[in-house]
Amino acid sequence: MIDLQDVHLRYPIVTPRGRSFQCSLTQKIGGLIRQDQDGRAYVDALRGITLRVPDGQRLAVLGHNGAGKTTLLRVISGVYLPSSGAVVASGKISALTDITLGMDVNDTGVRNILLRLAFMGHSFSAASAAVAEIVEFSELGDFINLPIHTYSTGMLLRLTFAIAT
Prior knowledge:
By secondary structure, the protein is of the alpha+beta class. Helices cover 34% and strands 20% of the residues. The chain is built from 5 helices and 4 strands; from the N terminus they run E-H-E-E-H-E-H-H-H. A hairpin with a 5-residue loop joins strand 2 and strand 3. The longest helix has 15 residues.
């Protein structure tokens, strides 16, 4: 379960230029860099995030570069502490830093499901039992029986996300 209540994350900008004329100017014209009352520069990476994901649900985070997707995931996982607000996350949390970790590009999608789940510590019987649900969620259809090197990037991402979740 993931529960975020009014989460904010402020990154301080710690450089000699952090108190520069440029910071003052960008603050006045509405740029990303702001200054607090003591003149310290910062960027609001997350502002007022309230979110609840119940047990058993999946969540995808989408947005343009710099939108705060990775920052949000790092706050949820406890890598970053929020500047304010509350974060409660229970259960197993893992990061998708290398989407093909533990996979063989020359093997089929089904075989890679089994390999990846074994790599994640699941028994063969548990991995076998999860195959149908993962295939359905990934929406790969008959492609699941082809080697994953034939998959598009989107297909591979759907498969690895389905396995991870």
